[in-house]
Amino acid sequence: MNGNQPATDLTTVLDGDHRELDRLCTEIELDQGSPENRKDLADHLIAELVRHAVAEEPYLDGEGDLAEADGLMRQLEGLGPQETRFERLLGGLIRAVRRHVREEGPAAVRELRRTCNADRQAELGREVLESRDAAATVPHPDLADRVPQADQLWPGPGFVDRARAALRTAASG
What we know:
By secondary structure, the chain is an all-alpha fold.
């Protein structure tokens, strides 16, 4: 690690994710812009939530708010803002994210602090940040030979799976 990069342990990364997710939910709730802008904000929330889930899910039991959010994200990814279900699903996603940020997420952070020493937390934090940086350059295995790399992580049908696969591939590579 060079002198320009701050030491960031996994609990700091996850806490920062929780703050950013909460901020995005508030931005969506306050947004009175065009339907297209709301769709862009929803897609941004989905992308950030997938990044966070990939980092945090090894420390969660697999059930709960992130599982609920995953189902809502998959329903939202193919909808346009003009569709009647869009706002209802987006509201449900915001509620699931807020429950996670206030309950399940902090419990995972506490468990990490309890079970991992500072060195291991720092190592895990570096791994998460490195995999996030690398994810943008890793193509989805099913699309690498058919879709230009710049288009592989754009929102739309399959976005949740493409983003999750890119982050997992980067983390394991």
